[in-house]
Structures are given as structure tokens and as C-alpha cells.
């Protein structure tokens, strides 16, 4: 399973990491305001 989340969404990122997701990459400037998207994968 894969997902992406705004880099600035610390609450969601902490939840995904707690549930076992691992960060696998970043999409620079992905969102309309230039914010990056962080990519996660569940092993």
C-alpha cells in the first residue's frame, strides 16, 4: 500500500509512521502552493 501526504502535515505523518509506513520519497512542489508531498509505503 502506498500513500502521499503534505510535508507540513506533521500529525498525519506521525500517525502513518506509527502504523508502520516507511517514507520512500518526496515529490517536490507537488501541491498547488508549492508544498512537497511525502511518499510512504507499508511493507
Automatic annotation (TrEMBL):
GO terms for molecular function: acyltransferase activity, transferring groups other than amino-acyl groups. Residues 1-43 form the N-acetyltransferase domain. This is N-acetyltransferase domain-containing protein. The lineage of its organism: unclassified sequences, metagenomes, ecological metagenomes.
Amino acid at each position: 500500500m502506498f500513500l502521499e501526504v503534505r510535508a507540513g502535515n506533521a500529525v498525519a505523518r506521525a500517525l502513518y509512521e506509527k502504523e508502520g509506513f516507511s517514507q520512500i520519497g518526496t515529490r517536490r512542489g507537488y501541491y498547488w502552493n508549492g508544498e512537497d508531498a511525502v511518499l510512504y509505503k507499508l511493507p
